[in-house]
Amino acid sequence: MAQRGESGTGGRRVDLHDLDRSFAEILVSERHPSAAVLPSKDEVGAFVDEVLALFFPQGANDVGATAEELSARLELLRADLSRSLCKVAPREACEDLAGRFAELLPDIYSLLRDDAVSIVAGDPAAESLEEVIAAYPGFVAIVVHRLAHGLHGLSVPILPRLLAEVAHARTGIDIHPGAKVGRSFCIDHGTGVVIGETAIIGDGVKIYQGVTLGALSVAKSAAGKKRHPTIEDRVVIYANATVLGGDTTVGHDSVVGGNVWLTTSVPANSYVYNTSQVRVRSVSDTLAPLDFSI
Amino acid sequence: MAQRGESGTGGRRVDLHDLDRSFAEILVSERHPSAAVLPSKDEVGAFVDEVLALFFPQGANDVGATAEELSARLELLRADLSRSLCKVAPREACEDLAGRFAELLPDIYSLLRDDAVSIVAGDPAAESLEEVIAAYPGFVAIVVHRLAHGLHGLSVPILPRLLAEVAHARTGIDIHPGAKVGRSFCIDHGTGVVIGETAIIGDGVKIYQGVTLGALSVAKSAAGKKRHPTIEDRVVIYANATVLGGDTTVGHDSVVGGNVWLTTSVPANSYVYNTSQVRVRSVSDTLAPLDFSI
Amino acid sequence: MAQRGESGTGGRRVDLHDLDRSFAEILVSERHPSAAVLPSKDEVGAFVDEVLALFFPQGANDVGATAEELSARLELLRADLSRSLCKVAPREACEDLAGRFAELLPDIYSLLRDDAVSIVAGDPAAESLEEVIAAYPGFVAIVVHRLAHGLHGLSVPILPRLLAEVAHARTGIDIHPGAKVGRSFCIDHGTGVVIGETAIIGDGVKIYQGVTLGALSVAKSAAGKKRHPTIEDRVVIYANATVLGGDTTVGHDSVVGGNVWLTTSVPANSYVYNTSQVRVRSVSDTLAPLDFSI
After folding, report:
1. Are residues C251 and C156 in the same domain?
2. Cα distances (angstroms) measured from residue C21 to each of B48, B59, B100, C29
3. Mind listing the pLDDT tens digit for each residue in C156-172?
4. Which positions 182-211 of C are in contact with B (Cβ < 8 Å)?
C-alpha cells in the first residue's frame, strides 16, 4: 500500500478528485443493478421486535391490548413479512409464503412458552417469567431461531439467515436456521454459542456459553450432508465444550463437561469429561521467572 | 409443523383473517394486565449512557459543564431512576431508593477511576485514560456492574439484571449484579466472560476473554447459597479458563492459565496450568487423510 | 458503602440536593477542558456504515448509483473522516491524512472483494456473495479491520481503536488495528475472536469462533515489541484455540485443532491437537451422585 505523501496540497486536491472519480467508476462496474436487494438489518430487526412485543409484551400499551388490536397487528406483521419476502422470493410466492408462515405462529408461540418456563425452572438465579423474557439473551436467541427455522422450512432463501444474524448480533449466539431444536430448550448466558445447520437437538436440552455444535469436515462439497451432531433429550453441555461431526450422537440424559472436545458418539446416561488434570505449582518451587505459558 | 399448501388464494385470505383472530385470542388470554410493566431496554440503556457521560465525558458539551449544570443533571438522573424503580418496586419506596442509590454514586465513581487507571497501567496496548474510557468494553462492563451492584445491595428487584444485560449486549461480558468485585478490576477484550451471582473478587484482579467464574451445581434448590468461586487479590486468569464452585478459592497472587478447568481451591502464589500437552504431527507422517478431529 | 437509611424524607430531600452539588464539584474537578474530545461511537459507526454501503450496496438506491453520485459520496466520506481526524490529530494534518487514507481505499476494496469470495468458496453453508456481505459478521469485522489498519499505518492515534471497537461491539470479534492480515482472510462465526496488535497473518488463513492470537507476556514494558504470533499462509485454526507469543509461528498449511493451547512454533504442514482424551463414564458405574465437575 504505497502512499503518495510528497504531493503539495494544491496538487493533491485535484488528485483526490480524480482518485474519487476513478474509484467510483470501479465501484459502479462491480454493481449489479439486477441483483436482489436484500431486506435491511433494520427491517429484519423491526420484525423481530414486533414478534417479541406481540408474544411477550413488556410495555403498558402491549399488555392492555384487545384481541381486535392484536389481530390487526398480526395482519400488519404478515404484510411486513410479505414485503420482505418479495425481496428474496418470486413476487407471486411471497404473499402465500407469509400466509403459510402465519399458520406456523401458534405452534411457535407454544414452543416459546415452554422454553421460557423451562428456563425459570432450571436457573437458580431466575426469579420470574418476566425476568427471563426481559433479560435472558438465550431466550431472545431461541425466539428468533424458531421464527427463522419456520421460514427455513418453507425454503425461503437468505431471510432466515438475516434473522439469525439479528439474534447473533444482539446475543452473541449463532444458530443456523436449519438446526432442528426440540421443546424446552435452554441456553444460559450464551455468548459464543454456535449451532450448525444440520444439528438435531432433542427435548429439555440445556447448553451454556461458548458451546459449539459444529462440523468436522468443512469442505464445500459437504454442503447438504448432515455435518453437525445429534443431541438427545435432557442432555446438558457445559461452558466452552465443542461437539463435532454429523455422526456424533450424545445419548439422552448425558452430561458433557466444560471445555470438552468431543468428536465421537457417547451412549445414553454418559458423563463426558477431560482426562487432563490441572497442575498447581508454587512460585517458591520455581527457579526461573514463570509465565502462564508453562 | 404441518402446512396447508393446498388451499387457493381466495379461500386462504379468509382463512388467514380467522387465523389471526383466533391466535390473537390466545395471545390475549396469556396476557396479565396486572403484571409489572418492566423498564424497557432503551430506558435502561439511556440511564447507562447518562452515567457514562456524567462520569467520563467525551463530548465537548460534557467536558465544559459547570458544577451547577452537573448538579442539575444528577438530579434529573435521580428522577429518571426513580421512575424506572417505580416499575419494579412499591411506589412509596422508589423515590427513597433512588436517593439511597445517589448516595452511593461518589464511592462508585471513585472505584471506577481506579479501574480505569489500572487498565492503562496493565495493558501495553493502552495509550491513555481517554482511550480506555472510549474504547475498552471491559471498562463499560465494570461501570455498569458497579451501578447494578449498588442497586442489588438495596434489594431492588429485576432492574439490576436489566442493567447487567445492557452491558452484556454491548460487550459480550455477563456479570451478575450480585457478584462482589474489589478495587482496580480489569477485564481485557472480555467477550464471553461470565461471572456468577455469588462470586467474590478481590483487589487488583485481571481476567481475559472467555473466562467463566461459575457454579458446579445448578440445581434450582441451590438458589441463595454461595455457588461461585472466590478470587483473591492480584490473581490473573487467562483466556477461556473456567473456575467453578462456591468452595473454590484461588489464593492471592496466583496465575490461572488459559483454557484451564479448575474446580478445587489453590493456595496463594500458585500457577495453575493444564497437564495436557499439544502434539504435532506432520502430514507426511500420516497414512490416511487427517482431519483436525484426530 | 454505608447507607444512611435513617433520615426522614424531608431531611433527605435537602441532603440529596447537597449531595448532588458536592458530587458535581468532584466531577467538575476531574474534567480536563483541554483534553481531546474524541469522535463519538455514533460518528465512527456512521463512517463504517457509509463505507459498507459504498463498497457493498444492498439497498435499491445504492445499487443504482452513478459514478458521479458515488464520487460525490466518496468526497463527503473524506470530509467526514477529516472532521473525525481533527479530533485526534493536529488540525493542519487532518485533511492531508484523510486524503492519504482515500488513496488506500481502492486497494482495501480489492482485498475485501477477495475476502468475500474466499468466504463463499470455503463455507458449505454460504450460498452467495450477497449472503456473505449481508449476514457474515466475520466479513464486517474484516472490512472494519482493513479500514482501521490503513489509518493505523498512517500513525493516526485512537481513531483506529475506536473503529475496531465498533466491529467488536457489532460482531464480538476484537482485532487490534496494528495486526497485519494477508489476502483472502476468513473468520467464521467469530464471536470471541481476539487478534493482538503485533500478530502477522498470511494469505488464505481461516479461523473460527473463540480463537485468540495473543501475548504471552503482558507486562507494560512489552509495549512496542512483537508480542503476538505469526500465522503463515493457508493455516486453519479451529474453535477456541489459543495461540500465544511473539516468537510463535504456525507454519504454512498447518491445522490447529479446537481448544488447543499453543505457545511454541510448529513447522509447515503440521496438525496440532491435544493429547488429552475425553473419558466417558456411565451413571450406573458411579456409587455417589456425580456432577460434571468430576
Report:
1. no
2. 20, 22, 15, 12
3. 999 999 999 999 999 99
4. 191-192, 194, 196-197, 210
